[in-house]
Amino acid sequence: MRLLIHICLPYLITGRLHSDAVAHAQTLVHQEAVISAEWRLVQSTRSGPEPRRHGVYAEQMEHKEKRKKDKDASKGDRVTLKKEIGLLSACAIIIGNIIGSGIFISPKGVLEHAGSVGLSLIVWVLGGGICALGSLCYAELGVTIPKSGGDYSYVTEIFGGLVGFLLLWSAVLIMYPTTLAVIALTFSNYVLQPAFQNCLPPFIATRLLATICILFLTWVNCSSVRWATRIQDVFTVGKLLALALIIVVGLVQICRGYYDALRPSVAFEFSGDPSVGEIALAFLQASFAYSGWNFLNYVTEEVVEPRKNLPRAIYVSIPLVTLVYTMTNIAYFSSMTPQELLASNAVAVTFGEKLLGMFSWVMPISVALSTFGGINGYLFTSSRLCFSGAREGHLPYLLAMIHLKNCTPIPALLVCCTATILILCIGETHNLINYVSFINYLSYGVTIAGLLYLRKTRPNLHRPIKVSVLVPIAYLIFWAVLLCFSLYSEPVVCGLGMVIMLTGVPVYFLGVHWKNKPKWIYTAVEKVTYMGQKICYVVFPQEDPSETEPLTSSKGD
């Protein structure tokens, strides 16, 4: 039959009989005969007849197995964000993002606003406790709404597009580029400090080195998710070793009797009259050092088994960081007076020069490596925020695309890199920290308030983790007190932060809410998107709804 088809089909189309068609058809039939003979030979050598399935159930099972094989085969070929973050890498992301430059520059600001050694240590401990309360709330949100994007995704889901866009706007415009710039400047200052021991490093040199560092790590994150997570793992271990060195040397000093600044009678001697506003600013400085505790929620879709590994990573990382931070500050005060710490531009370097002697060069290198890992972690997570915002339609769709082969969000990474480089030359470090910390705390409070609102409006929503209602309430009370006194003490800084956030309102209504734009705007956007796709070699990721829908299913909703 197949021979007749191959011979006659050309005749029916062209009206002529080709000898080539006859020869080709004969060859096909011969090949089929050989394959059939080989199959009969294999069947005859088997020990017994192959069991056969009968009936409708057998057909359903065969169809199910076929679909499973097709799904498994296509899963690895899909262009999508890959689940390559296990428990160890998840802990490294949290610890690596928290321990960046903060512990090396914030002790000066915390002590300055707290006014005494004892109160500054209390601020560090309480800051870790508040961070733990917030992380418990984020653990519940992360497994209830398993989307990448963190605060932005949760607020958008709970309160709608406008509130989510305002958080996204302030984060992309000021919060994360500023944090990256501060960490990069700290990196360059510590690298250059040994070469300029008696003066500050040149302005151009610090900015140039910081820019080179950001460009290099952007290239790494564009090239491979696995490379980025491996760098995060290695440098997280490195920064913990650097802090362990400080803690061990400090404990040795305490054992030798050098703890005058830590005696209760001395530790609570205030340099001036303490005020609630100053204490609130001390908490803001400490909160900068603890910022990053929620960053694993930005990459939820890339975490292996997020319902298990997300809360586990939080439970391991937050207490560890709080312990390390408190012990590090105790170590600082074992070798430096409060006046020496306030006068130091690089606290860890001054610590090393006083206690390590000829090995003092170890400290600036260790701190530089620590901040290098922090830059990598912030780039990795903040780019996912841009990616999530574009996927929701709040940013240009080009930012929601990933590389065809590497499966990395290259356009979003380039936007984060460019914004950071632009802001590198703006502002003084400690003012930037106050600025960013206020916006950070504002976004945290709105998100955790959303947790309570979601419990009231959707009580039957499936929640694999459900914390006590006292946890978000306690966090929100502290949050409200801190923000009020921050507004009272620094009205200009906090007011400018609010103004920047509110500038997103007209942008939202013009760029997102307004659907019937002139045709030439859509044409221009399409051309830019197409050009960006060709330059970056990116496409929209292929989503698998089965990976997220079961997690957000309701019971009785």
Automatic annotation (TrEMBL):
GO terms for molecular function: L-amino acid transmembrane transporter activity; neutral L-amino acid transmembrane transporter activity. InterPro entries: AA/rel_permease1 (IPR002293), AminoAcid_Transporter (IPR050598). The keyword Transport applies. It comes from the Eukaryota. It is found in: Cell membrane. The chain crosses the membrane at residues 85-105, 117-138, 159-188, 208-228, 240-259, 279-300, 312-335, 355-381, 410-429, 435-455, 467-489, 495-514. GO terms for cellular component: plasma membrane. Keywords: Amino-acid transport, Cell membrane, Disulfide bond, Membrane, Transmembrane, Transmembrane helix, Transport. It is a multi-pass membrane protein. Pfam families: AA_permease_2 (PF13520). GO terms for biological process: D-alanine transmembrane transport; D-serine transmembrane transport. This is Asc-type amino acid transporter 1. It comes from Mugilogobius chulae. The lineage of its organism: Eukaryota, Metazoa, Chordata, Craniata, Vertebrata.
